[in-house]
Amino acid sequence: MGSMKQRITIVDVARQAGVSIATVSAALNNRSGVAEPTRQRIVTVAERLGWSPSLRGRSLSQERAFTVGLVLQRESSVIASDPFFASFISGIESVLEHRGYALVLQVAPTRTRAFERYRRLAADHRIDGVFLTDVSVPDPRFELVQDLGMPAVAINVDPREGISTVRQDHERGIAALLEHLVDLGHRRIAHVSGPKDYIHTRQRENAWRGVLAAAGLRASTPVQEDFSLAGGSRAAATLLARRSRPTAVFCSNDLMAIGFIAKAAEMGMSVPGDVSVAGYDGIDFGAYVRPSLTTVTTAPHALGELAAKALLGMIEGQTASHVDTEPATLVVRDSTGPAS
Question: pTM for the full model?
């Protein structure tokens, strides 16, 4: 049984080039004190041996961790079931892997614990910058990163001084969705929202209220849930038991919409015959549930990719940037139909 191939180190390069380890280190890190012919010989040997710098070695030589941090403020059960985060993280990784950076990913169930994890990562000098998702109002992380002088990029927030932002316009997609429901004859359109202190919860609720007001319809009190399948199921149990139940429901993410549909079926109601249901995010799974889910489709992979590029730019000395990706768009499927 063959042994695993050992990693090539600067010790191997020094031995093959016939120079000291210190000379190899200086040559490969472009420091002064090495004659150009010697530097070229060392580089040639390093390339021939297949040497690449270790993350630890690069960190020590350049006073940088070559690591960025992301703390997701959600229950671990929600993270496990929501494909949005996997797509967002894959977008980040698609940039990091080509730039020699690593991602430190942590999950915290509460805002307080998420803040503490960001603070500890920064205090331990384990990261060079951070991604800020699920931004709340107010959000103490903004003051933290500014006090620390830590490069940061925030997702789906308005531009702010000293911090990069990456946004996808939600309003047009939600407006198209609500107008689609109004055109189908729906007049009682309920909303299942996420946690009320998240900016994106407020953004989606405000978009819902705006379209209903423009159509001369009354907005009922949203049912607040936690973005999970179980949360959507609980919302259905609440809304569909009402005497004047809604004929359509807009859920603040696809998981809650899918949970809502499952509970409606359990209660003996048909979707969209008795109630139309729509979500937000555009996760792939929504196309395969029955009925297939009408939703507003977003671009988490693109958001992750743009966020990673913006963050690495700040780490490498660029000023904060503010980037907008293509707006979220309506996808009409089978879970919405004419009002009953």
Answer: 0.80
